[in-house]
TrEMBL record:
GO CC annotation, single: nucleus
Comp. bias regions, Basic and acidic residues: 243-253
Gene Ontology molecular function terms on file: Hsp70 protein binding; Hsp90 protein binding
UniProt cross-references to InterPro entries, sorted A to Z: Csn1/TTC4_wheel (IPR044059), TPR-like_helical_dom_sf (IPR011990), TPR_rpt (IPR019734)
Region (Disordered): 235-255
Domain of life of the organism encoding this protein: Eukaryota
Descriptive protein name: Cns1/TTC4 wheel domain-containing protein
GO biological process, one term: protein folding
Gene: PARS2
Entry's family note: Belongs to the TTC4 family.
Keywords recorded for this protein, A-Z: Repeat, TPR repeat
């Protein structure tokens, strides 16, 4: 039989074992210095961001909260309110797309509380605004105002949307509505001042554009009258549909540089932007194209004054230094002849095609010159 002292020792050992086991069970899931941040983030109240998909096994607390939010047995107002709160949480995390989904789900409950619906719409408008969906944001602001005309946040959001959409007049109207409710609201006062500034600038730019348009129209009419008075007829080129067999090779070469222009019989939107114009002295200047078909070359003069002579330009181009393509040294001013094509068989009238007068330059008496003139209807200058 064991002594009392031995029994006491056995009892103490048993108690120690029990306490050790109790501690292990009690603190097995407790925070430690190593994992406290990770474990803390698993608590719904302290989560920084919610997981995209809630797994009941990994996040039972979140699953329980979600089941409460989406409990269809509750009154519609409570369901809408819960979805609004869910959207707000996503909004705080800057997860605007998920916030929109929650706010939309809340609106689909069709609850009878106008205030809740107005807030849902205003909050969804804010989410759309941050995503850059300005028209959707404005539509939601309009809808929110219908539910609650005095909802200040909806009025501020509507004004902000109009500013982003450059609808400055509408922005001022939204601001005025809001300032009737809250005359000292700082945000609305700033928006109104900015909208008024931009509206005035837009109106000023519109007036300038109108004056400019009127001036350009007057100049164009004067230019057309001058062209007609000089016996010049404008031609619109026939547009040839591009065939599937056309290749890039067909459109190469300087002689085709004017082929792809946007034409109206007068304006030539050439790469240089050159067009015919009248200067202050009433002298006409044309963008002129010189064609050298024998060598498939061209020269483009952006502003050929009608007071200048062809000889002036030819002397400049073929005077001291001849072009590299003239290997036989034939293109000297005294050897050259100028022609323009007779498009309409009307002698005595110059025709302008593609907005730029074009002139054919040939070497006088050359075999190519004789062949070219036999195949084309031209008028010698």
């Amino acid at each position: 039989m064991a002594s009392l002292s031995q029994q006491g020792d056995d009892s103490d050992d048993g108690m120690d074992d029990f306490m050790e086991k109790f501690k292990k069970e009690k603190y097995s899931n407790a925070f430690s210095e190593k994992n406290w941040e990770e474990e803390f983030d698993k608590v719904p109240m302290f989560m920084k961001t919610a997981p995209d998909e809630i797994d009941p096994m990994k996040h039972p607390e979140l699953a329980a909260i979600q089941s409460i939010i989406h409990d269809d047995d509750r009154p519609l107002e409570e369901q809408a309110e819960s979805l609004k709160d869910e959207g707000n949480d996503y909004f705080k995390e800057k997860n605007y797309k998920k916030a929109i989904v929650s706010y939309t789900a809340g609106l689909k409950k069709n609850c009878s509380d106008s205030n809740v619906n107005a807030i849902l719409l205003t909050n969804r408008a804010a989410a759309h605004f941050h995503l850059g969906n300005m028209r959707s944001a404005l539509n939601d602001s309009v809808a929110a105002k219908k539910f609650k005309p005095d909802h200040l946040k909806a009025l501020i959001r509507g004004a902000s949307c109009c500013m982003e959409l450059k609808k400055y007049t509408d922005a001022l109207l939204w601001c005025e509505e809001g300032l009737k409710l809250q005359p000292t609201d700082k945000k609305l006062l700033e928006l109104r001042a900015t909208a008024d500034k931009h509206k005035r600038a837009a109106e000023r730019d519109a007036r300038k554009a109108k004056v400019k348009e009127k001036k350009e129209l007057s100049e164009r009419e004067a230019l057309l009258a001058a062209i007609k008075g000089r016996g010049i007829k404008l031609l619109k080129p026939k547009q040839r549909p591009k065939r599937s067999s056309d290749s890039d090779d067909d459109n190469r070469g300087p002689s085709r540089a004017m082929a792809g222009l946007d034409l109206d019989g007068l304006c030539s939107v050439e790469a240089t932007g050159a067009t015919v114009f009248l200067d202050e002295q009433g002298v006409m200047h044309w963008p002129v194209l010189f064609l050298y078909p024998e060598h498939q070359q061209t020269d483009f003069i952006s502003a050929f004054s009608e007071s200048s002579s062809f000889l002036d330009h030819l002397t400049l181009m073929f005077g001291e230094e001849l072009p590299p393509w003239d290997t036989n040294r034939k293109y000297s001013p005294q050897n050259l002849q100028l022609f323009f094509e007779d498009h309409e068989k009307e002698y005595g009238m110059c025709f302008v095609k593609a907005g730029s007068p074009s002139f054919v330059i040939l070497v006088n008496g050359s075999p190519f010159c004789e062949k070219f003139l036999s195949e084309r209807k031209t008028i010698r200058l």
